[in-house]
Specification:
Layout: E1 3-9, E2 13-19, E3 22-27, E4 30-36, E5 39-45, E6 49-58, E7 64-75, H1 80-86, H2 90-105, H3 111-116, H4 118-133, E8 138-150, H5 152-222, H6 226-248, H7 261-284
Antiparallel strand pairs: 1-4, 2-3, 2-5, 6-7, 7-8
Helix pairs in contact: 2-4, 6-7
Protein name: Band 7 domain-containing protein
InterPro entries: Band7/mec-2_domain, Band_7, Band_7/SPFH_dom_sf
Pfam family, one: Band_7
Length: about 280
Amino acid sequence: MSFLCCACIDQSERGIVQSCGKFSHILDPGCSIILWPIQTVDGVSIKVTQIDVNTNTKTKDNVTVTVTCAIQYSVNPLECDQYYFKLHNPHMQITAYVDDCIRSQIPTMTLDESFEAKESMANAVKAQVASSMKPYGIEVHQALITNMQPDSTVMQAMNQINAARRNREAAIEKAEAEKILQVRAAEADAEAKHLSGKGTAMMRQAITDGFKNSIESMKESCGLEPREVVHMMLVTQYLDVLKEFAQSGRATMVVPHGPSAVGDIEQQVRNGFMQAQMMNPNSMH
């Protein structure tokens, strides 16, 4: 005895109909009539599923690394029967194909090359898994290398190498900065000395011009000879120096003073000029 029954299939599934254990047809989403118990229905999900495969392998430079690969796949709605009847454990089979692909590529590369080749490895894994699982009604949508984890001791050594490299680069940059500062300081010092020399030369030229104008003015107004004018100016400057020295308040100097002090100073200056003139002809011979 058999009965007409309703079979409701969810939108995310397809129904596998068997008649007395033999595949009959695929049910689409919605409500369908089956002849129970002669016919039975089993649902197959067509949602995208992700599995993470962890593969342990060794690189070309003998570094043990764990590669995590994420496989996103779904069942082809038109080939649900191939998936339902031919596959027992799809996760295990996909894992085997991923392990085989990863272990055939990583040993040919160094650790640094492996990190750089993540995209090419992911494409190779996707191509191999997709071609291998297609006869079973599985469509591979994406394969992603989500993590590559070397051994902890290797990671620590890599971090130390990177830290040493960055410290070296920082030291080089610091030395270059100090070099630039020293060069700039030397250039500024040279420019300051150049300007100071120009200022001193201009000051001396101004003093010389002032002396010259004063001598010519006093010669015209007072009838003094240039030598007498120079004597008087030297005495005046000498007294000005004593005045500034006394006003500074930083030291004490005892100077002979009396009614003839100024005359004595003038006489000493004059004698100095006369001695210089007497010694000058002897040095010519």
